[in-house]
Structures are given as C-alpha cells and as structure tokens.
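[Q] Does anyone have a clean structure-token version of this?
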Amino acid sequence: MTGRIIHTLADVEEGADHLETVCPRLAHARQLTGPLPLRRRPDGFAELLSAIVSQQVSVASANAIWGRMKAARLTGPRKIMWASDDDLRAVGLSRQKIRYARALAEARIDFKALRDKADTEIVAELTQVPGIGIWTAEIYAMFSLGRADVFAPGDLALQEAARLLYDLPERPRERDLRDMAEAWRPWRSVAARLLWAYYRVAKQREGIR
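[A] Here you go.
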C-alpha cells in the first residue's frame, strides 16, 4: 500500500489544515511561514544521486556541486560509471561520495517499481545501497515519490526547527523527534515542510534543497 500521495499544493494545504487542528505550535508556525511549498521532484537515479550529494553539506554547497555535475552531464548511471575519479573530484565530490555514487550506479534500482511499494519497503530497499542511509531514503520518498506520511527526524534543520518551535532546551535526538512526529500522522511529510519553512524564517537560511 502506497498510502496518500502529495500531488498538488491543494494536498499540502489539506495536510497543513489538519496539522493546525492537532497542534497549536504548528498552527503558529504556519502563520509565520505562509503557504508551504509543494516540493515535488521527479523520481529516478538523478534525484537519488542529488540526495547523496546533499548529505552533510550546506544547502549552498550542495547546490553548487549539483550544478557542476549537471553542467558536466554527470547525473546518469552510465556517466558515473564511465567517469574517472578525477572527473568526479573536479565537480566537488569527496572520495566517499564518489564511492557512493558508483555504488548507486551499480545497484540498478527499479525506480518504477518503487512507486508502488510501501514506505517501509522503500526505505528498506534503498538503504541496502552503500551511502544511502535512512535520511536519504526518507527524503527521496517524501519529495520524489510524494509520500504524505514520511518524516526525516535525522535531519538537523528539522531538529533545530523543533527545538525553536517547541522551546526545547536542546535539539531533540532522532529517536525523540520520530516519536514527536507520531502525533502528526497521517501528514508527517507536510509537518516536515512546515518545520523546514519555519527554520527558514527563524534562521534566515534554507534547511533543505
């Protein structure tokens, strides 16, 4: 079962309306952020590679590296396999991310089949590939597959947004934030969009690509 899919801004608004009713803090955040973005992306190899590029770097750095990769046409599995390590280093990939990019190219994931799988199956399948952790798999499920009830509690911007919004003494740990997010079902992906938008307002910088 795929569950609810976010296709349009109307779906995001429906989710945000629900979240307002279950949590006054989220309602306050929505007042500050205004309309939330759709954040739908295509699915497939390039988007998952882009998520790997975004790991553990700033949004600005990730955008710059991905821009260079697109300019060099290094966004497809064959191009990754044919490129030399020097080619990949030249666009900004670290040694570790070069290894991850090649592992993804070799994995031959059936991206069309992922569309019909349950959220937990998607995460389980993707995390078998070296370099794809739970965060990357959850981001892919949220943005590329449009899953409405996926959350990414390992995301530092979401943790910081939750700390600020709920006036917590420190950032919640991944496990604690995952537990908090249970109250936001069945629209946890919209809650993530709201917290990222709140982070942008509170910190004056983007928390996610």
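[Q] Thanks! Anything notable?
[A] The CA atoms of residues 124 and 137 lie 8 Å apart.
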